[in-house]
Amino acid sequence: MVMERQQQGKAAAFDIAEAGFGNRPDLDDDGRERRTGTLVTASAHIITAVIGSGVLSLAWAIAQLGWVFGPVVLVAFSVITWFCSSLLADCYRSPDPVHGKRNYTYGQAVRAYLGVSKYRLCSLAQYVNLVGVTIGYTITTAISMGAINKSNCFHRNGHGAPCEASNTTSMIIFASIQILLSQLPNFHKIWWLSIVAAVMSLAYSSIGLGLSIAKIAGGVHAKTSLTGVTVGVDVSASEKIWRTFQSLGDIAFAYSYSNVLIEIQDTLRSSPPENVVMKKASFIGVSTTTTFYMLCGVLGYAAFGNDAPGNFLTGFGFYDPFWLIDVGNVCIAVHLIGAYQVFCQPIYQFVEGWARDRWPDSAFLHAERVVRVPIVGDFPLSPFRLLWRTTYVVLTALVAMIFPFFNDFLGLIGAVSFWPLTVYFPVQMYMAQAKTRRFSPTWTWMNVLSCACLVVSLLAAAGSVQGLIKDLKGYKPFKVS
Q1: What pairs with residue 268 in β-bridges?
Q2: Are 42 and 277 in contact (CB under 8 A)?
Q3: Which is nearest to 41 in space by CA: 264, 270, 334, 339?
């Protein structure tokens, strides 16, 4: 029933546009507020979503795979992500990619092309992934904030000092900031935050890259190999296998953004066509991030060798210059403050849309007042939005406090989301749109690609689950670390 009302609402909006609202300068062809997004803002959203905490684990991931398979896997994930993102960009409108009706979310696009049953599966995968990413970003930000305190402590008291920091306190601070930012009503209001976050992501990636180059230039040669960590020396045979699988999940997580691609595309102005702009933005975003990923992963491995830490800015492979490490971790925190919003806004929109459709006569759900805030200006405030979004942020922070395991958590999120959201649904929607004949060459190689990525995702998930089980042994929640 809710889905039927949503479909009726979309049809009504389109009919309004056809009735003449499309000619109004302040409205788009669907009767909604005119979109103003451009290639620049879309690229910034993508870079913000892609270059996240995943880059910090790439030196460790390359250390597990070695000089041969590490770079090959990075490039393979990059090409697959870009290719499937291009397919997905054509599915923003249906049935025609340029003149069809808009699909405002990833789930709506799946429903338009593949039906209700696939839509439900997609929604489950998408929102589980989005929740997981916001928890992962809470963990990463807390670790970076704690690393600043540790870095200053090591500088004052020496590298062997017993310096500790409370991740719990850092998570509370991060959650408080997100509660405030979450009151921004939608994606259109946070374009500036994505640009700031994109700049921060490039800044801390560059700092990590520069520190790796400095360590290599210092003449200290770390132990590396063609196949990564050595069985019998660095790890046991079983650890080598599990770590290899987990590294696949870490790399998959580093390229995760397909689950918000349609939502980003929905911010673009309609001329030139949204799919054309989004393909260019995807190419810019993925190529930019791949360049940084290759440099950070490969040079990080060269600097640390087989002993590369799970997070190369907070694992204290670097101690000096301490102020530069502090700047890098501040950039991480600022970036993830913005990235958290990019990933949680679709969750907010989904729940709020469902609730308002479910209870259309509720004054509490529909009430909204405009409050004048100094500097910010007019700010829309909703009691329902305040209650629900605050609850969400608090819950994700609590989960992060209970399970603050960086590498394993990121690997699991990447493994669970990569195949269904980055590969399977875009491929299936493309073939439905193109009316691809079964067992034709295109149908065959598309399905081979999808099945191969499914196998990779299953292996990565197995490695990450094994790592989480190992981490949980003897772990005490809410401890100072």
Answers
A1: 37
A2: yes
A3: 264
The mean-pLDDT minimum among 227-231, 313-317, 334-338, 386-390 falls in 313-317
* Tokens encoding 343: 């990933």
pTM of the model: 0.76
Determine contact, residues 265/32, Cβ cutoff 8 Å. Answer: no
For 403-462, the pLDDT digits (tens) are: 777 666 667 777 777 888 889 999 999 999 988 998 899 999 999 999 999 998 888 888
Across-strand partners of 102?
93
Burial of 33 (0-12, 13-18, 19+ CB in 10 A): exposed
- For residues 143 and 151, give the distance between their C-alpha atoms in angstroms, rounded to a whole number: 12
Structure letter (DSSP) for residue 231: B
Token pair for 29: 């062809």
Q: What is the CA radius of gyration of the chain?
A: 23
Long-range Cβ pairs for the range 426-431 (8 Å, 24+):
426/84, 426/85, 426/87, 426/88, 426/91, 426/258, 427/84, 427/87, 428/113, 428/114, 428/118, 429/87, 429/88, 429/91, 429/109, 429/110, 429/113, 429/114, 430/87, 430/90, 430/91
Residue 8 burial (CB < 10 Å; 0-12/13-18/19+)? exposed
The C-alpha atoms of residue 385 and residue 374 are separated, in whole angstroms, by 21
CA distance 140 to 260: 20
State the CB neighbour count (10 A cutoff) for residue 374: 5
Distance of CA 369 to the CA centre of its chain: 32
C-alpha distance from residue 219 to each of 206, 228, 374 (Å):
21, 21, 54
CA 234 – CA 153 distance, rounded (Å): 30
Number of residues in the chain = 481
